[in-house]
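User: I've been trying to design a sequence by hand for this structure and keep getting stuck. Would you show me what you'd pick, starting by listing the structure so we're on the same page?

Assistant: Good idea, let's start from the same input. This is the structure you sent:
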C-alpha cells in the first residue's frame, strides 16, 4: 500500500514537473504566420531625420499635407478614409494602406509598382492627388533650411541634399514602424494564455479554410499578389485594375498585393477601394469571393475575434521638432 502511495506521489510530482517546465520554457509554435521582430536601429540619426521629413508638411505644395496626413501614426498608419484626399481636396483613387510593417512587403503600393520604401517615397511628394510638389521644388525647400543641411551633412558626409537622400532617410524611418508583441505573437511564441478559446477558434478557421494561403508570413500579407475575386468576380465601381497596370499582362488584372492583416482593427475601411466598412463585412466578402464559402454569423465573429489579436505595440513616437524655414524658403501655395 505504502509502495503504491509513493508511486502515485511520484506520478503527481512528475506531472507537476512537466507542466512547470512547459510554463517556463515556452515552445515557439510552427505556424504559417511568424512573429514580428522588433526594429533594429543601426543609424539613429538617419531615422530621426527621416521622421522629421515624414512629418514635414513643407514637402507639399499646400504646406499642410505631410506623409503623416494620410498615414497617421497616431491611428493605424492610415487616414481611415475610403480613398485618400490630397492637394486641393482632390480625391485619390485608392484606400491608403498602412505604413506600419510595410517594410515586410515584397513591394510597395496595391499594385506593387515601387520595389521598395525608398522608391515609394518619391511618389506621393509629386503626385497631384497627394502632395503635388515637383521634386525639384521639394528638394529646394529642404536645401533652404539650415537645420536640415547640418543633419544631411553629418549623416551623408557631404552637403548636397538630393531626392535620393530625402527618400532614403524617410525609408529608414519607415523601417522602424513595426508593431511586435501582439497577443497573437505572444501565442505564437508559446504563451497559451495570450489568446482566448474563441480567438483560437477563429485562427483555426483562418488556417484550415485557406486564408493563410494568401495572408501569411510575419505581416499576414505582403508576400504575394493575388486576384481579388477568385471564385466570383469582385464588383467595384473603382476604375483601378491592379497589377496589370505594372506588368501589362492580362492575367494580372485585378491582382493586388495581399494587404497585411497586422493591426487590421485600426485600418478600416477595407480593400483597395475602401468599400468594406467593417471587418465582419470584409471577412464575409473574402469567404465568398476567395474561398467560395458563405460564413455563418458565428464563424465571422470568431475570425474577427482572431483578427483583433493582431494589434501589436505601435511605436511610441515623440512629435519631431522641425527646423525653421528662412526668408528664402519657398512659401506654401495651398490653392495652386
Ligand atoms: C494624400 C494622401 C497621402 C499622402 C500625403 C501620402 N500617402 Fe502614402 N499612400 C497613399 C495612398 C492612397 C497609397 C496607396 C496608393 C496605391 O497603392 O496606388 C499610399 C501608399 C503608400 C505606401 C505603400 C504601402 C503599401 O503597403 O503598399 C507607403 C510606404 C507610403 N504610402 C508612404 C508615404 C510616404 C513616405 C509619404 C510622404 C512622403 C506618403 N506616403 C504620403 C496616400 C498618401
Ligand atoms: C487568394 C488569396 C486570398 C485569400 C484566400 C484570402 N484573402 Fe484576404 N485579401 C486578399 C487580397 C488580394 C486582398 C485585397 C483585395 C482588395 O483590396 O481588392 C485581401 C484583403 C483582405 C482584407 C482587407 C484588408 C485591408 O486592409 O483592406 C481582410 C480583412 C482579409 N483579406 C481577410 C481574409 C480572410 C479572413 C480570409 C479567409 C476567410 C482571406 N482574407 C482569404 C487575398 C486573399
Amino acid at each position: 500500500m505504502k509502495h503504491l502511495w509513493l508511486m502515485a506521489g511520484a506520478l503527481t510530482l512528475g506531472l507537476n514537473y512537466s507542466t512547470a517546465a512547459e510554463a517556463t520554457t515556452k515552445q515557439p509554435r510552427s505556424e504559417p504566420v511568424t512573429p514580428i521582430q522588433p526594429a533594429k536601429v543601426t543609424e539613429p540619426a538617419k531615422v530621426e531625420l527621416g521622421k522629421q521629413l515624414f512629418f514635414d508638411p513643407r514637402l507639399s505644395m499646400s504646406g499642410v499635407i505631410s506623409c503623416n496626413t494620410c498615414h497617421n501614426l497616431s491611428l493605424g498608419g492610415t487616414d481611415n478614409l475610403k480613398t485618400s484626399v490630397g492637394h486641393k481636396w482632390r480625391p485619390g483613387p485608392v484606400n491608403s494602406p498602412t505604413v506600419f510593417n510595410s517594410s515586410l512587403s515584397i513591394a510597395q503600393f496595391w499594385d506593387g509598382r515601387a520595389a521598395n520604401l525608398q522608391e515609394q517615397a518619391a511618389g506621393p511628394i509629386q503626385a497631384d492627388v497627394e502632395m503635388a510638389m515637383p521634386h525639384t521644388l521639394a528638394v529646394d525647400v529642404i536645401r533652404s533650411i539650415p537645420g536640415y543641411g547640418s543633419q544631411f551633412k553629418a549623416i551623408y558626409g557631404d552637403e548636397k541634399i538630393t531626392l535620393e537622400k530625402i527618400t532614403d532617410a524617410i525609408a529608414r524611418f519607415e523601417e522602424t514602424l513595426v508593431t511586435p508583441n501582439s497577443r497573437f505573437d505572444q501565442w505564437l511564441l508559446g504563451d497559451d494564455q495570450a489568446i482566448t478559446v474563441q480567438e483560437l477558434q477563429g485562427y483555426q478557421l483562418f488556417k484550415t479554410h485557406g486564408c493563410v494561403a494568401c495572408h501569411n508570413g510575419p505581416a499576414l500579407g505582403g508576400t504575394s499578389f493575388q486576384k481579388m475575386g477568385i471564385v466570383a468576380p469582385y464588383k467595384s465601381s473603382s476604375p483601378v485594375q491592379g497589377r496589370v497596370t505594372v506588368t501589362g499582362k492580362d492575367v494580372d488584372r485585378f491582382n493586388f498585393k495581399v494587404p497585411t492583416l497586422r493591426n487590421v482593427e485600426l485600418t478600416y475601411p477595407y480593400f483597395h477601394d475602401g468599400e468594406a466598412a467593417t471587418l465582419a463585412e470584409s471577412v464575409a466578402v473574402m469567404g465568398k469571393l476567395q474561398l467560395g464559402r458563405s460564413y455563418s454569423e458565428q464563424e465571422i465573429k470568431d475570425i474577427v475575434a482572431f483578427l483583433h489579436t493582431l494589434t501589436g505595440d505601435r511605436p511610441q513616437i515623440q512629435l519631431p521638432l522641425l527646423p525653421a524655414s528662412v526668408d528664402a524658403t519657398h512659401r506654401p501655395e495651398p490653392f495652386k
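That's my pick for every position. To get oriented when you compare it with your attempt: The longest strand covers residues 225-227. The CA atoms of residues 215 and 291 lie 13 Å apart.
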